[in-house]
Amino acid sequence: MKVAIIDYGSGNIKSLYNSLNFLNYTPILTNDTKEINDCDKIILPGVGSFDNCISKIHTKVDIENLKNEILFKKKFFLGICVGMQILSSFGFENRKTNGLNIIEGVVEKINTKLLPLPHVGWNNIEIIKNDEIFNGIESLLDFYFVHSYRFKVKNKEHSLAETNYGEKFSSVIKKDNVYGVQFHPEKSQSYGLKFLSNFLKL
Amino acid sequence: MKKKRLIPILLLQNGKIVQSRNFNSYQILGSPINAIKRLSEWASDELIFLDISNNDNYDLDRDDYNVENLSNLLDIVENVSKKTFMPITVGGKIKTLKDIEIRLSKCADKVSINSEAFYNKEIIKEASKEFGSQCIVSSIDVKKNGNFYYVYVQGGKKNTEIKIHDWLNFVQDQGSGEILLNSIDMDGQGKGYDLNLIESVKDHIKVPLIIAGGVGDYNDFCIGLSYNHIDAVAAANIFHYKDQSVYYAKKMLFEKGLNIREPDLFNLEYEDDLL
Asked: Which of A53, A131, B98, B197 is deepest in the core (most CB within 10 A)?
C-alpha cells in the first residue's frame, strides 16, 4: 500500500513521516499530482493559520485533482489539525477564507470561557460514534492538542469524537472516506500511533 | 478535561548534557545517550531542548546503545523524534526566522526565543505570523533585584532592566503562544520553585505558563501544579538522578489526584501491539 503525505510547506511533516515509519510504512512526501494519484491513501498535515495553509496549498497542490482523488476515486484521506480545518467550507482565522469545502462546516475561535489560548497539551476525546478508526482506543483517552480554532461541522453525523475546552468541539470527524482529526496523532505517543495504524489499515 | 503537563528540560552545552546552578556553574553528565533516553520516556508530556553552548562546537560521546552518530543538537532532536512521539521544543541561539525554519525542519514542533526578543523587538511578532503562535514559546529568565523581578538575557548574564510584568505583557501581545518562566535565583538550588515569582505574575498570564527552576523533589511539582495559572511544570536536573525518573514523578502526581495524564511506562514489548 502506498501512502502520500502532502508536502505543501506547512509544519513538521517529518514527525508524521517518522511515526508512519515506526509503524513500518514508508510514506511519500509529495505535492506532485502524479505521485499523489499513485497512492492509495492520502494524509494532509497542517500547522499555523487557516488562511496561510489555504493559500500555501493552492500554490503547491492541484486542488481539483486532489478533490477528484478524494470525492470520486474515494481514496481514504486524513486531515490533521489545520489539515483537517481546511476541509471545511470557511475559516475565520485572521480573515474569512474559503476552505476546500469537503466536509461542510466552519472554523472559528474556541470559546474557552476564560481558559488560556492556544489550547496546548493533552486532553481526552469522548467517542460519540463508533468507527474502525477507534479500534483498540477506548473513549476518554488523552491526545495532544495545539490549536486556537475549532471545526464546527454542519451535520452532527460527521462528528465521531468530541473534546471539551471551555466548550465541546469535534476532535475527530468523518464524512464517507474522509477523516479529520484536530489533535496530533503523530505527537500522541501510543494511542496516537494506534490511531494512525487504524487509518492505514482501513 | 485538559491535563496539566510535566516537561523535562535537556540542557546542552557544547554537545554535553549538563546540570545548571544559578546559570553559572555547569556540571557535565556522564552518558548523554542515557540521559536523553531517560528524559524522553513516554511518561513525559513534552520535551524541551535548550542549547546553552557558547559556540557551535559539539563533541558528543557516542557509540553506546547503537545510537547513530549525533553531531549536534538538531541531530539529537531528529533522532529522539524517531522514537518518542511527543511534542518537542528547541531553544537557544535563535536569531532569525531562518533559524526557526531549520529547527522545525529537524522535527522541532516549537521553538523558544529568549535573548533575541530583547535585541529584536519584532522577532516574536514576525515568527508567530509566519509559523503560528502555537509554535513560539517565550523563554524568560528572571532574577530578583531589590523588590522587583527583572528579565535577564544572554544566559542570565545581562540585566535588561525590564520588569517581568512589562515583559510578559509585551511578549504575549506580540504573539507568543506559551511562556517558559525560569528563575535564575532558584536554578539548581533544589529548594522548590520561586513561589513569590509565581504569585506575582498571576494576573499577567494570558497564554499557557510553564515554570522552571528549583525543583528539589517531586513534591515541588505538586506545589507548582496547584496554581491555577500554571499549565506545566518543568525541570532539568532532578530527572538525571535515577532511571525512569519521569515515570516515577508522574506516577506520584497522578496518585495524588493531580490533573495530569496517567503515566505510560513505554517498553518495547508494547511496540508489537501498535503494528
From this structure: A53
